[in-house]
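Board notes, transcribed. Complex of a protein with S-adenosyl-L-homocysteine.
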Amino acid sequence: MIGAKVDLAGCTVLLAAAPGSATRAARYLQAQCVDTLLQASTPLGALALLGQSDVLALCTGQSLKFSALRRQALAQGTPVIELDPGTAEGRITLVGGGPGALELLTLRAAAVLASADVVFCDRLGPGEFLDQLAPQARIIDVGKQPGHHKVTQERIEELMLREASRGNHVVRLKGGDPYVFGRGFEEVESATAAGIPVSVVPGLSSCITVPAAAGIPVTARGVTRAFTVISGHDPLEEQQLAQLAVLGGTIVVLMGMGTLEHTAAGLRRRGLPADTPCAVVESGTTGTQRTTHATLSTLAAAARAAGCANPAVIVIGQVAALPLGLDAAQQMSLEATA
Ligand code: SAH
């Protein structure tokens, strides 16, 4: 959106525009904090409202249709601005940034970041590389520490919509994949409801990549042929614990550090063997990656003793012990590639 060199905050603005371009132009003007927005789609209708307006806004390409109105406005000293709703339409792209390592960002994600005007990031994913990936963009950190929400989800959506309404390409960079416990769909819904074009770039989710970085395959032929990914943000319910305990396969818990004791004790109570191998993988794929191995009965105590902290992926199942069976040389090369 170009042409609005006048500070429109607090003004009464008359938008004279054909219906096709009026919606986007109006959204832009509202984002400029105008006090009152008057709208007319015909020259006659607009003329009737001109006397009440501080500024007249016209759209590029419609100057002929509204030429008499423009002349009248200038004659009475009302500034005229021209908007180009077609050239820089705001949009939102949700980008899955992968687990944290720069190389695990997709090519599409990198291209989108390179074209961003504004990036909303948080503490997960490759946020620390943004000065490389999006040097031209304004970075807004809306990171949340568990339990200490810096910016509410509602506020994040509000800010994203506001930036996009100003004609910006807004990128919401998320750890892993936007649709895996990432509130991605809520953000798609709010953009759609506001009439703002939105798209999603998938990312490598930590539920697979973080165990893999520690040498743990979430499935392995002959060992397990299923894996369940579950959020441990809230304590698992009895029924979920019972179902998980009998389902077989690998259990991968995200956001599970705060409820680890409850989860481990519940799964044991519901019949999962005490010697089931487990692993906690912290800060996977980053320079501070660390793995703590245990069994179901020792998991909570082992994590406590090691001082395990978020972000961490908890793996419960036979696959968690597989890297321990590799010889030392193989283990070292795994670590080197993590
Ligand atoms: N959308 C993300 C998950 C968001 S929920 C994804 O697809 O990966 C946040 C949780 O993801 C964290 O609490 C942690 O369990 C996990 N997580 C994300 N990145 C991680 C990393 N690099 N290392 C360990 N856990 C990670």
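The chain has twelve helices and 14 strands. The two ends are 44 Å apart (CA to CA).
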